Amino acid sequence: MEQDEKITTQELSEKTRLEAEKVSLPRTIHLVPMDYLSGYSVRPGFYEIFGATAIPGGVNFTVHSHGATNIELLLFRPEEAEPYAVLPFPEHYRIGNVYSMIVFKLNIEEFEYAYRVDGPYVPEKGLIFNRNRYLLDPYAKAVTGQSQWAVMSPHGQHYRARVVKDDFEWGNLKQPLLPMEDLIIYELHVRGFTKHESSGVLHPGTFDGLMEKLPYLVELGVNVVELMPIFEFDEMQDYREINGEKLYNYWGYNTVSFFAPNTSYAASKENNQEGNELKNLIREFNRNGIEVYLDVVFNHTAEGNENGPFFSFKGLDNNIYYLLTPDGKYYNFSGCGNTLNCNHPIVRQMILDSLRYWVTTYRVNGFRFDLASILGRNQQGTPMANPPLLEALAFDPILGGTKLIAEAWDADGLYQVGTFPAWNRWAEWNGRYRDDMRRYLKGDEGMAQVAAQRIVGSRDIYEVHSRKNASVNFITCHDGFTMYDLFCYNEKHNEKNGWNNTDGANDNNSWNCGVEGETTDPEIEELRRRMVRNSFALLMCSRGIPMFLAGDEFLNTQFGNNNAYCQDNVTSWLDWSLLKKNRDMFEFFRYMIRLRKDNRILRTNLSDGACGFPDISFHGVTPWIEHFASYDRYVGVMFAGQEKEGRYVDPQIVYIGSNSYWEDLEVVLPKLPASMYWERVVDTWKAEQELFGSSQTSSVIKARSVKVFMARQFS
Q: So which residues are the catalytic ones?
């Protein structure tokens, strides 16, 4: 009998279908079906393109697993809990550990997808495959089921993905590409920035709501907004109700997908075009000279430990994606249940692919890496001298113009401020700047010397490693007190979080100015406002990259809560009515930002000095000192230099005088050449700033205040 005669009726039917399928495809489609599977014509796909990608004539699905024995593609109709089609990847569609399949004639608007993965179950070795679980694609570009804030997924405890159209029109957009020393970073939470009814926006709590505040940010003068996590996260994780208050995972430091934006931050449903609202925001911010950075969380995921949910990475390769103990448990260097195995080649590649995707598809300008020291641990959890992931990110060509900022510590005590593996490419959140400046500002003894070092760029930390533009200076950020609360509370007040006030940091280095919390005492209130002005004045006059928390400019308060991660309410939402009440503070912040922008000498060395002065010098109440005594609470810093543009232009000299003592001090200023005089440009004793020309050689700097002087030429 001939071979053809052995073809079964079913095989003949499938062959006929395939021939018909080929004929029905447009002639421009050169990929043709090779098999018929579960009612669909299919063929092997593009093995190097992970995720689900629309192509002419169908959709390419590619997923990989080192330990799986087989994988099934599940297709769902939107809003339905069970799949309407199950397509097992044929064995010959697998190359190595990669499964890839093109499914023809799928309309991306009509389906969602997930995977089922089978494999060995040996928990003590970290193998926990379970073919009954629906798994989210690690490369999903849009996640369904959480499009509405704080509404549980309608299809249970699993996530599904959508295929996204990448057709956003960027036009001839040119990114700002700001030099590192010119950055002024403004950290904000997308939802909390406009959710309060006082925000006055049409779309509160969304990307569009933030977009409506663009004119405000331009007026303020910041040139970077750093968005707290906007990757898809689960705000319902650890949901609780305490005394009638609903508590969520509001901040978003619990990533579900590293490639998908949080759809509940969109003002409207963006089915199959998820991310367009965010892209529009980035485009318009860039057009106005403002870069957009993302706070990214690659140190752990929302799957938690053994008791946590099981929705993606655990089911695909648990022992690869996570750092596991010898008995298969989860290392917890993140403080959140698990730790991503960042330097495993598979995970390292996923992180690099994710960052490249956000840079190329969303035109993101920079990233701040949460608990970045974890990214430098090896597969046993030990810190590495030259972590391959950090090196790869430092030298990746696509990320070449992208800012990389590390939170240079983790939750297991690894603190690397000044020693983070950087290749002169990474900047760092300078936690020592925050801690030292807080102590100096409130008048602690023995802090003058370190405060002087922080103001001049923390040379004691970074110059020893020849690092430039490495220090991101901050006094406040999302984690801790607001700048106003820093001078209203001696102690944290986190009772509303439901942990009996045991959560949050205890070492706040704060000072309540004499009364804990709210007061009607006008002297205390004025002192608090002056302390905020002192803080921001020194921040804007310090070498390094300044960063501050949204709302600090109009004295926003969290009522003493220093760990408001779960407070999706007025505790965390910016109260924009305070902008009107504290307009003078906004104007002071705006003035100091403009002063920094207009005087490059505040941002970087211009030369080795000017007018016989060194580029950096320290001063007490009398000029020219090398070291401060332990009892000193006055710090004078002078920057001097000239910019060379063919020839030397006029010298730039600035003197910053800071008095954290509780009494007025008579300060002798450094003597200028006869052709120059000191002009006072900042005095934090006053709410309103005005220029005041003076040829005096001394000045009274009042108790707990800051003055800044610029050298001017006599006309």
A: 370, 407
